[in-house]
Specification:
Keywords: Cytoplasm, Methyltransferase, RNA-binding, rRNA processing, S-adenosyl-L-methionine, Transferase. The protein is an alpha/beta fold. Helices cover 49% and strands 15% of the residues. The protein has 20 helices and 13 strands. The strands form two sheets. Strands 5, 6, 7, 8, 9, 10, 11, 12 and 13 form a nine-stranded mixed β-sheet that branches. α15 (286-298) links the parallel β6 and β7. It binds S-adenosylmethionine.
Length: 449
C-alpha cells in the first residue's frame, strides 16, 4: 500500500468511527485484515486513528484558532486537518513537510483547488507559528476539556462527583493506551504454565492483580499466539475479572446472568463452577446471543444456556427464588472504557446517563425476586458515574428492604484493593488511573428475606 493509499484509508476509517458506525478497535482490525496492511503500516494506522480520535477536541481547538472566518468545514476536510495536525504535534514519525504534502494531495483529489490551498495554508501556519497555548484558557473545566479532549459535560460531572484532581488524572490517563489483559481457561491450562510458555515464545507477560486467572500482556500480539487460538485464553480487562471472583458461584449452583453478551463474565463464572451446574445467560439482542454461545463453545464450556430476552421480563420465564447467584452487568454509558474506545466520549450525551440509570434500576428491580434468600447478586458497570453506579444501588436498597449491601464483599476484595480511594458504602469504583484497569464499578448485594 502506498503512503497516499494508507492516508486515504486512515481518513476513511476516522470518518466512519466519527459517524458512530463502529467501535474504533473493530473498524481498525477489519481494515487491517481486509486491506492486508503490512506490520509497519499497521502500527502507523493504529496510532494515527486512535490518537486523532483521542485528541479530537484538542485538535479542533488548534484548527479553529487558525480560521478567521467562522465557516463550517466539510467533515472530511476537518478530519484531514485533525489527522495531519495530530501527526505534526504528537508524533515524530513523519516529517512535517511530508505530512502537509500528503494532506494537500488528498484535498486536491477529494475537493477542489480552493480546498487544497486552504488545507495547505492552515497546516503551514501551524508549522510556522506552532499551535495555540491552551494554558491561557481561564476556566479550569474548559481548559481540562480542551487539553485532554473530553466534552465539558463529562468533565463537569466528574469534577462535581470526584473532585478536580481525580478528574484531571482520569482525563489524562484516558489518553494513554491500556495494557491488555487475558484470562486463562483453568480447565485447560494453569496460569503459571501459560506464563512460562508465552515467555518462552517471546511475549512480555506477568500475572494480573485481581484474579488468579489473569495475565497482563505487556509485549506481543496475543491474538496470534497458539494458546489464544486453542481457546486457552480470553481477552478480559482485570476489572471485569473481579466480577466472577466476587460472585462466589460454586459448582452445581444455578446462576442468572441477566445482561450477558458477549459472554466474557458468563464464561468466567462457568470456569469458576468447574463447568458444573447451570448458567442462564440472557441478552436483549437476539444477534448477540450467538456471541455468548460461540465464546462458551470456544472455551469448551457446556453449562451456559443463552437466550434472547429483556432482563426486565425474566419473571415471565423464571419462578421467584430460582437462582443462587445473579449477575446484572448492566448496559451503561461506558465512560470507563474511553482509553480503548475514545469515540465513546463524543457519542454519549448526558441524557444517556439519565436514561440508562432508569433502565439499570428497572433491571435490578425485575431480577431481584428471582434470587434465593441468602443468595448473592452482583451489580456492575463499565462506567465512571455516580448516577449509574452508587445512586442506582442506593435507590434499589431503599426500595427493597429485603436486600442489603453484603458487608463481606469489602473484606473479600483483593488485598491490593482494600485501601482503594474508590470504596464507598455502596461498592467499589475503579478509576483507570489507579490500577491500570478500565473504569469499572461493582458491588454485591445479599437477599436477607
Ligand atoms: C455491559 S454489556 C454485558 C457484557 C457481558 N456481561 C460480558 O461480560 O461479556 C451489557 C449488555 O446488556 C445488553 N442489554 C441491554 N439492555 C438489556 C436488557 N433490557 N435486557 C437484557 N440485556 C440488555 C446489551 O445488549 C449488552 O450486551
Amino acid at each position: 500500500m502506498s503512503d497516499k493509499q494508507l492516508r486515504n484509508t486512515i481518513l476513511d476509517l476516522l470518518l466512519r468511527i466519527d459517524k458512530d458506525t463502529g467501535f474504533s478497535h473493530l473498524v481498525i482490525d477489519n481494515a487491517i485484515k481486509k486491506n492486508k496492511i503490512n506490520p509497519k503500516d499497521e502500527g502507523l494506522l493504529t496510532e494515527v486513528v486512535y490518537g486523532t480520535m483521542q485528541r479530537k477536541l484538542t485538535l479542533d481547538y488548534y484548527i479553529d484558532s487558525f480560521i478567521t472566518q467562522k465557516k463550517k468545514l466539510d467533515d472530511w476536510v476537518r478530519m484531514l486537518l485533525r489527522m495531519s495536525l495530530y501527526q505534526m504535534v504528537f508524533l515524530d514519525k513523519v516529517p512535517d513537510h511530508a505530512i502537509i504534502h500528503e494532506a494537500v494531495e488528498i484535498a486536491k483529489k477529494r475537493g477542489h483547488k480552493g480546498t487544497s490551498s486552504f488545507v495547505n495554508g492552515l497546516l503551514r501556519n501551524a508549522q510556522r507559528q506552532g499551535v495555540p497555548d491552551t494554558s491561557k484558557i481561564n476556566s479550569d473545566t474548559k481548559r481540562l476539556s480542551v487539553e485532554t479532549s473530553h466534552p465539558e459535560w463529562i468533565v463537569e460531572r466528574w469534577v462535581a462527583e470526584y473532585g478536580y484532581e481525580t478528574t484531571k488524572k482520569m482525563c489524562e490517563e484516558n489518553l494513554n493506551r491500556k495494557v491488555m489483559a487475558v484470562r486463562v481457561q483453568p480447565l485447560k491450562i494453569k496460569r503459571d504454565d501459560a506464563i512460562e510458555l508465552l515467555t518462552s515464545q517471546g511475549f512480555g507477560v506477568k500475572p494480573s492483580l485481581f484474579s488468579e486467572q489473569g495475565i497482563l500482556i505487556e509485549q506481543g500480539n496475543i491474538l496470534k499466539s497458539d494458546l489464544f487460538k486453542d481457546g486457552c485464553l480470553t481477552i478480559q480487562d482485570q476489572s471485569s475479572m473481579l466480577v466472577a471472583e466476587m460472585l462466589r458461584a460454586e459448582p452445581e449452583m444455578v446462576v442468572l446472568d441477566a445482561c450477558s453478551a458477549p459472554g466474557g463474565k458468563a464464561t468466567h463464572i462457568a470456569e469458576k463452577m468447574h463447568n458444573m451446574g447451570s448458567i442462564h445467560a440472557y441478552d436483549l439482542h437476539k444477534k448477540k446471543v450467538k456471541l455468548i454461545q460461540d465464546k462458551a463453545a470456544g472455551l469448551t464450556l457446556s453449562i451456559i444456556n443463552a437466550d434472547a430476552m429483556d432482563a426486565r421480563k425474566l419473571q415471565s420465564v423464571h419462578k421467584e427464588e430460582s437462582f443462587d447467584r445473579i449477575l446484572v452487568d448492566a448496559p451503561c454509558s461506558g465512560l470507563g472504557v474511553i482509553r480503548g474506545k475514545p469515540e465513546i466520549k463524543y457519542h454519549k450525551q448526558e441524557s444517556d446517563v439519565h436514561r440508562l440509570s432508569s433502565i439499570q434500576l428497572e433491571i435490578l428491580e425485575s431480577v431481584a425476586p428471582l434470587l434465593k434468600i441468602n443468595g448473592l447478586l452482583i451489580y456492575s458497570t463499565c462506567t465512571v458515574d455516580m448516577e449509574e453506579n452508587e445512586n442506582v444501588v442506593q435507590r434499589f436498597i431503599e426500595g427493597n428492604e429485603n436486600f442489603d449491601i453484603d458487608s463481606a464483599f469489602f473484606k473479600e476484595l483483593p488485598e491490593s484493593l482494600q485501601a482503594s480511594q474508590g470504596i464507598t458504602e455502596m461498592g467499589l469504583q475503579l478509576f483507570p488511573q489507579d490500577y491500570g484497569t478500565d473504569g469499572f464499578f461493582l458491588t454485591r448485594l445479599i437477599r436477607k428475606k
